[in-house]
Amino acid sequence: MVARPIVLSARDIQTMPEEGFLEGTTGGNVTWKTLLSSSRTSSDTLTSGLARCAANGGHLKCHRHSHPEIYHVVQGHGIVTIEGRQQEVGKGDVVFIPGDSEHGIRNEHPEEDLVWLYVFAADKFEDVVYRFSEHGTKARL
């Protein structure tokens, strides 16, 4: 597939199905919508999507992957942990996560979902292998 400009409308994004980790994996109860990935769109070099942790306990467990990642929080507040350090984040904040850094995020707000745009330096989402800290397992997407 040859890369070309892509514009996704808000309506396109709204109607995309939410994805999540397979039942029985250790990934947490986070969901996401893959926006750009060469396996789905005529893009390359970058993969992006919107992730959501539900209010009052939604979380993505601590994990690693070789690809660097960026989070841009677009809704809510949460706590991101990178290499054991916790930091509060909220709407408008940007987080850079170096490749192979252990990280996770959780939402402790009782009423508002935490939503962030994520970007990987990878052609497709399937290239990003999550290695979860708990029991050293790899999650299947």
TrEMBL record:
Pfam families: Cupin_2. InterPro entries: Cupin_2, GPI/OXD, RmlC-like_jellyroll, RmlC_Cupin_sf. Residues 57-120 form the Cupin type-2 domain. The keyword Metal-binding applies. Keywords: Metal-binding. It comes from the Eukaryota. PANTHER family: CUPIN TYPE-2 DOMAIN-CONTAINING PROTEIN, OXALATE-BINDING PROTEIN. This is Cupin type-2 domain-containing protein. It comes from Paraconiothyrium brasiliense. The lineage of its organism: Eukaryota, Fungi, Dikarya, Ascomycota, Pezizomycotina.
